[in-house]
Amino acid sequence: MARAVTTNRKILNTAVAWSIGLLIFFPILWTILTSFKTEAQAINDPPIFLFFDWTLENYAVVQERSNYMKFLWNSVIIAGGSTVLGLIIAVPAAWSMAFVPSRRTKDILLWMLSTKMLPAVGVLYPIYLGFIKLGLLDSRFGLVIVLMLINLPIIVWMLYTYFREIPGEILEAARMDGASLREEILYVLTPMAIPGIASTLLLNFILAWNEAFWTLNLTAVNAAPLTAFIASYSSPEGLFYAKLSAASTMAIAPILILGWFSQKQLVRGLTFGAVK
Amino acid sequence: MGRITLNKVTKSFGETQVIPPLDLTIEDGEFTVFVGPSGCGKSTLLRLIAGLEDITSGQIDIDGVDATAVPPAKRGLAMVFQSYALYPHMSVRKNIAFPLRMAKMDQAEIDRRVDNAASVLNLADYIDRRPGQLSGGQRQRVAIGRAIVREPAAFLFDEPLSNLDAALRVGMRLEISELHKRLETTMIYVTHDQVEAMTMADKIVVLRAGFIEQVGSPLELYKSPRNLFVAGFIGSPKMNFVEGAEAAKYDAHTIGVRPEHIAISATEGVWKGRVGVSEHLGSDTFFHVHDTGLAETITVRADGEVSFRHGDTVFLTPREDVLHRFGADGLRIG
């Protein structure tokens, strides 16, 4: 009997997990489906799930009306630039916090995180004015800086957590083995931290890619990324659900593909067994 | 060469002084064991010698050269850690070769030394595996291999066997002793296990709260412990201590008798008591004797053949020629 109960339990658990997964994925699925409908079918009541006249017309219209590649390129520059810049600053910071902590290290980490609790709109005004003065408005460089600063606390925290997992004794062993600080970092710490650095990089790239508040507020034409591309389809001439969905699908596709491929990379090698 | 001299070395963490001023000389080629209960400062002392911790004051000389400000990488010492501290992303071969690579040695020489170390330590079959695929004993051997290839001035061992199971520990103990006999290099070994200290050391340094309680060969420590702490720490089972009138007979505040120096008999003896727990080891039997009026328990080591039951009345006779006498200050008399 006990065995039957566990089997039922497993089935139940699986069903619950799948339901939650589908619930989360449903909006994305619906967006993708809608992008293949005609505008009339998109707003049909009751909604049509699968049996509609599949069409690529929306994609053609979107392509025609706006330069997708320009938005895409802006997104890549802004998300990639802010992530790489953030890592360059965060690696040494997390390093010193993890391996040479002081009495205030915990406080500093908490203080950094507390900046994320501030509503972004609270600092919009000073940053906007600052951007005007510095001539950074609607520039990719300005957005790289802002998004880097916004995500920096998270990057530092994540790297700090990963570095903390690396036993100090291994670094000490490297020191005893005659490694200089540079060699210790290059040959011992970095290879051991690569899974952590990679997942930090990925997460921050996604966060920066999806960031909409700052990108919408600080850009107009030149530096507008894909979030602005979606927004441009959302209202002015009434609602065009199918075209909006097509734009959205095009905007999220690159990051979905990136996430899909890198998840396998990230799972690999997270656990080693040198220290018991 | 590996003569290490500590001159008035101290170490403080913030306000707390963990090593009070300490002088110690470790001769070239000597196997020195730092032993003491946990928190006695033995690991800190080793890390000071390694250079992994900075000393607060004093001076450390290695082969007559002041090494106090020399970083660990340049001291020419090799260390084996309790957790092995192998590089998880490197194969056994690369782990062992790492210190040689850091020394910019040429590849042919690296290969020669690594192969030599691997055959000495029976690692040849695992040379391309990663540390994660090895057992505890194998990992320990890799860590030792990584230490020996450099031909260091001295080896530092920080409780290297405490993560191994009992049987493996005895085997590795012998391997390390044999290694020392063959290499004749200075070794400093930290342990809390007095059996390891007794069996391996040329010289034992007994530490308590950062102070050196006694320095000597294992048998010196066993035969003439300088004070009550060393007397109680060295030897297994522990020495019996008797105070009061019985001690006064010997003009002492406390007398100490080792369990192996007490004869047990059913009929006659100096002290009378009742048998509590008996521990039968086969070769020996330990009797814990109560109600002697001398101490809570008197432990007696007898031959494995000797048998008494719980509650039996027995008579004990200490061997007076190996009796230890201590004054009220805890120090040895005579």
Tags for this entry?
heterodimer; A: 276 residues; mainly alpha; 12 helices; 74% helix; B: 334 residues; alpha+beta; Rossmann fold; OB fold (Dihydrolipoamide Acetyltransferase, E2P); six-stranded mixed sheet; five-stranded antiparallel sheet; 9 helices; 18 strands; 26% helix
What do you see in this structure?
The complex is a heterodimer of chains A (276) and B (334). Chain A has helices at 2-34, 39-42, 57-65, 68-99, 105-114, 124-134, 140-165, 168-176, 181-210, 213-218, 226-231, 241-267. The longest helix of chain A is centred in the N-terminal third of the chain and has 33 residues, at 2-34. In chain A, helix 4 packs parallel to helix 7 and helix 4 (68-99) packs across helix 9 (181-210). The two termini of chain A are 39 Å apart. Residues 268-276 of chain A have low confidence and may be disordered. By secondary structure, chain A is mostly helical. Chain A has twelve helices and no strands. The relative contact order of chain A is 0.13. Chain A is globular, with a radius of gyration of 24 Å. Chain B has 334 residues and is an alpha+beta fold. Chain B folds into two domains: 4-231, Rossmann fold; 238-326, OB fold (Dihydrolipoamide Acetyltransferase, E2P) (Beta Barrel), CATH 2.40.50.140. Chain B is built from nine helices and 18 strands. Chain B has helices at residues 42-50, 92-102, 107-120, 136-148, 166-183, 194-200, 218-223, 228-233, 245-248, and strands spanning 4-13, 16-26, 31-35, 57-62, 65-66, 77-80, 154-158, 186-191, 203-208, 211-216, 240-243, 254-257, 262-265, 271-280, 284-290, 298-303, 313-318, 324-326. In chain B, the strands form four sheets. Chain B has a six-stranded mixed β-sheet with strand order 6-7-8-3-9-10, with helices on both faces. In chain B, helix 2 (92-102) crosses helix 3. Chain B is globular. The mean pLDDT of chain B is 92. At the A-B interface, helix 8 and helix 9 of A face strand 6, helix 2 and helix 4 of B.
